[in-house]
Amino acid sequence: MFATNKKFNGNTLKLAAIIAMTIDHAAWLILPRETIAAFICHIIGRLTFPVMAFMIVEGYHHTRDVRKYLFRLAISALIAHFAYAFCFNHPLLFDLRNGLIDSTSVLWGFTFGLSSLIVYHHEQMKKWLKVVLIILCIILAIPSDWSWVCVVFLLVLDLNYGNMKRQFIGMTVFGFSYALVYCLVSSWWSSFQFAVILAFPLLFLYNGERGRWRGMKWLFYIYYPLHLILLGVIRVAFHIIYPR
């Protein structure tokens, strides 16, 4: 599946996702909307979601204990929810009056995405029950950043596991579908959402290796809520009104 002469291992991809994510989140708080600078930062930030989704599927297929993997992701999603709410001045509890989508972090959606993979591969579970549970996972992922796409992305990547071209086609279809809906609901300035395709060259250079440093997974779990808390502190300290 992967050529060993390619340059990027899992740690490299995760580091790229962390940098792009930080730039994107900082831009939402600090830069005025509908400016060229903000647009460019958000384009860079679109690298994060496809890379994270890709690495979660890789993690599913290589982890020794998928239940522990799901538990770590769920705990991170719970902690990140409060950090996300603080950073972007959202209600701590889901509030339908302020819009359900984007009420919590992408880790919430990925938690149900990983759950859907576990359900799909469960050998003893009946097909009808799998369908019901996967639909439930999609519904429960709606409040997160990237919404239902978190679940669908992981399923598409998993169903085409071992065939990167088909994975890219699937990601493009559903990534562009989400971007189009986002533009129609918000404004065409949000067309930076289509930049998810820019992550594909990075993924194409993935060599299938995790990387020597085993602490990267823990760094991500710690860094994700921490950077949101720090940005939230900046928002409060400088009296930044969000959304700008």
From TrEMBL:
This is TraX protein. The chain crosses the membrane at residues 12-30, 36-57, 69-94, 100-120, 132-156, 176-206, 218-242. It comes from the Bacteria. Keywords: Membrane, Transmembrane, Transmembrane helix. Coiled coil: none annotated. Pfam families: TraX. The keyword Membrane applies. It comes from Kineothrix alysoides. InterPro entries: TraX.
